[in-house]
Structures are given as structure tokens and as C-alpha cells.
Description:
It is built from 16 helices and 24 strands.
Amino acid sequence: MRVKQSPGDEKKYGNQNTDGSRSLRHFIQPMRQCGAAARRMLEQAAAAQWGVDIGEVEARFHEVVHKPSGRKLGYGALAGAAAALPTPPADQIKLKEDKAFRYLGKGNVQIVDLFDITTGRAVYGIDAKLPGMKYAAVARAPVLGAKLVSYDADAAMKVPGVEKVVVIDGTPPPAKFQPVGGVAVVAANTWAAIKGSQALTVRWDTGAHGDYDSAAYLAALAQTAGKPGKIVRNDGDAETALAAAAKTLSAEYYVPTLAHAPMEPPNALARVADGKCEVWAPVQSPGEVQDELVQKFGLKRENVVVNVTLLGGGFGRKSKCDYVLEAALVSKALGGTPIKLVWTRQDDLHNDYFHAPSYERLDAGIDAQGRVVAWRHRVVAPSIRSIFVPDPKREQAGELSMGVIDNPFAIANLRCEAGEAEAHSRLGWFRSVRNIPHGFAVQSFAAEIAHMLGRDQKEMLLELIGPPRIFDPRQSPGVPDYTNYGEPFETYPIDTGRLRRVIEVAAEQAGWGRQMPPGHGLGIAAHRSFVSYVATVVEVAVDDKGKLAVPRVDTAIDCGFAANPERIRSQIEGAAVMGLSIAKYGEITFKEGRA
């Protein structure tokens, strides 16, 4: 068997987008059904060839066996006849039982291209080549919605190797996945293209977002969080309970703008000529890239081919295809010359679809017995929806369902509010999306309540979650309808028993409560994200000079059916590294509209 990467074609393959941790979650059962159907068809073909009842044959280990006689036929010998059969009806498709799995759920199954990746044979976007291709770099609009005023093409053309200067028109927001606009420099090599783009001396009209300053924006977010917002969940009467509480605690949390910074920056190779378009690129949503190219150039779908390379890191950034459209536009402007368009790391950090900043204020009321009787969570953040529709100026239901309105705590008086915040940059999905700021705020606040009360943090967290139950936020007052925002969250109620269990396992494996060396401490947090339940214990060390180190991280995950445990382990290890790096080093700031 050969494993081949499919091109972009959602009509043939369905939704190919790998955003939202959906690859296995959406496709493990359909793929199992495909396999079971193929197995049945091979058995039908063998039974027909032998003239026996289908109950006498069994497909196993790459061949079909006639059980009474021991006769065998390989899959290859049967493939033609099997493929000519109709797909069996659902009642004839029998899935394997778990005990029959040879690969699924086993911990020693490596990814098929691991050897090629390790030895440098794997093809990433940056490796794609075509005869006669030219290289392009773009000086892009530095501010959301900025308009091109002037540029010095002559200066760029004086750079050795530069051959052409092409203007790429921008699309005013909301622009979805369209290029921000800029001036492309085409050259014989990447270095010349980059140096040529730097020589352009481009002037911009920065427009409405030219005064965006992240420090001033943070102050405005904090001010908004201090006032009531739009109610998005309202259990009991949190306001009255807060006023009557024996003790109260308030805390505020800020997560800054973050950039994806994948190891391989965006790049694409494109050829647009003779009514056809073909691209080679690291993309997370190849079907959507095909859609965008069809619409952009008015081409027939069958004349647009999207070849998917290895991703080189994505985390949500490469589900947006602006860089592919740039390469295709330049190729068309040059009459079909293949164009390899490469972003520098600076391009990547300045023109990302950023993870939105978020400001959260939480207030808790505690009774005389030390029980949390009131909880109010105000979140103030711009919305990802701002790239699709006129800016809604507050987080939408799909974003709020990632740790705000689906708060699992068993608190009778629980109120959630969303405040207004305008988007001043392109925003997009980032690994785990809005679970980052919401989970950070909720879990940090739970820890601060435990600290104030002198309680063990793990026991406080379990008490807040309460006894095991199936919790559906749709039953709570004030929760908005978010069926029109991407994937309906309400399909997945929360099982607090699973959440409790990962806390217990992570704490046990980390040796929760053990004697710590001087300057060391343990913290614990748990969250439900994309139908997976995760708890992490982090050991932190601070030396006498204030230097931070993390000697150990223990994570327990309950993601349901574990198709490939080795990949899950890699995900969790990568998440620990990425989480630490964005917490310590990831802040993106803005001045005069520019990142």
C-alpha cells in the first residue's frame, strides 16, 4: 500500500481543513466505515469467483481466505472485481472490534513519512520547484486596511537579479483570506527579491487603524472589563450573591496578541496560464484554497489544482491562503511564469492572522464556610469573525464556548459577560484558539481562590467542579445560539467525571503534595478543549536571581478513542513547549498600527 497526500478537492474528499483538531475527530469513523466496506467488497468478489457463500470467506492480512478449504486470493487479484461492486448498505458493513485492531490504538505505529522527514527527503512548500520559475518577495501593507500611496520601482530594479515589480491590490476588511495588498518584486533568486522589496521605499495611507497602540488598547480593555457587558450566561443571581458574600476576591488576566511563527514561514509556488492554475503550498485547508482560486480568477474548478506539501508548522496560520493568492496573482501578471513567493520571518510576524488579545476579569463570592457561592467572568476581546463580516466588536458564541459559557464549575450563581473590543489587525485561529485566554484566566483564578483560603489547589479545583455529572450549557439561561458559528459546540456536553479523573491522574503521576526543594512549587490546571479533557501539573523553579525554570511537566489527557498514542504524546509534548514559549516570549505589540 502507498499512502498519498490528496490534492485540494472537497467535492471528492469532503472537508479537508485540519483546523479545530477535527482530522481524527471527524474522520476516524468514516475512514473505518470505508475500510469495512472495502473489506466486504473484497470478500464478495472472492466468494463470487469461487462460487461459495460469502459467510465462508474472510478478508485478513492482505488476502481473502476461504475458511473451509484454505484457498486464498490476494487483495490485488480481487481489486478490479471488488471496485466494480456497489458499496454495501450500512447493515452489511461490520466494523472491527477493538480487540482485532493491529494498528489503531497501538503505541508503536510511526507516521509514514518519518524517514523522509528525518533524512531531508520530504517535500515542504519551500522545496517545490518548477522549470523556469522566478522568485518573489512582497512589501505588504503594514497596517490593517492601509492603502498604497507610492513606491520607488526604479530603486528596486537597480538591485542585481531583480526583473519585475508588480502591484498586488489589497482588499479592505473584512477581507477573509485575501492579500493585504502590497508591491511584489520578482527576481532570479530569493535574496534579490527580498533586497529589491526593501529598496522600494513604499509609502502608505494607514487609514482608520494607523493610531492603534497595544499599550493604550490594553488600558481600554481593562476599563471595559470593569463595567457590565453583554450577558452570555446567567445561572442564579451572581450579583446578589457577590454582594452578600462573606469574602470576595477579584483578579484580572491579560493575554497579549500572539503570532503563530511556524518553523516554515508562508510560501507558495504558483503557475497561472491558459485558463489553468496549479499551486504547490503548505496549506491546512486545500479545498478552501481551491475555492478561493476559482473565485479569484474565474476559472473552472477542474482547472485549478492544489498540491499539498508538508506543512512545516501551521497551528491555524496556514488555513488562511493569502500567500497562495499572492503567488498566483504575480504569476498571472507575468503571463504564466511560475512564481515561488517566499515570506521572510519578519513578513510572517508583521502580517500574521494574529491570535487576538484578551482581557478577563473574574470576581468570586465566598461564604462563611469557605465555599464559592458566586462567580462572575467578564471577557473583553475582539472577534475572529471580524475577518469574515463587519467587526462584531466582541467575542462571538463559538469563541465564548471555549472556556467561558461552558465553565464546568458547580456554582449556583454564575454569570458570564462579553465586553466590546474592536479588531485592529487580522485575527485568526491559533492552536486551541480561545481556550488559551479563557482556560488561563479560569484556572489561575481557581488557584488564587485556593491560595486566599489556604486550601490545597487540587482539592479546591475538584470542589469547584463538583461531583461527576453530564453538563450541557444549553440549559443555562442567557447562553446565545451559536449553531451558525462554525461547528455547533452544543453537540458536546461536558462530562465532569472525565475532567475530575485527568486531574487525579496528573496529580498522582506528578507526586502532588511531595516535599519540594527551596524555590520550587507545583501548580495544576485542567480544561476541556475540542472534546478532550486535559490536566497538567507544572513544577516551577525560581532561583535567588528570579530566573524561571520548569524542570518537569506532567499531563494527563482523555481524548476518547486514542487512534495513535504516539502522535498524542507528541501533541502533548509540543503543547508544553509551545505553551511555555508563548507565555514567556510570545507577546506581539503594536505602535502606529504596525506589529
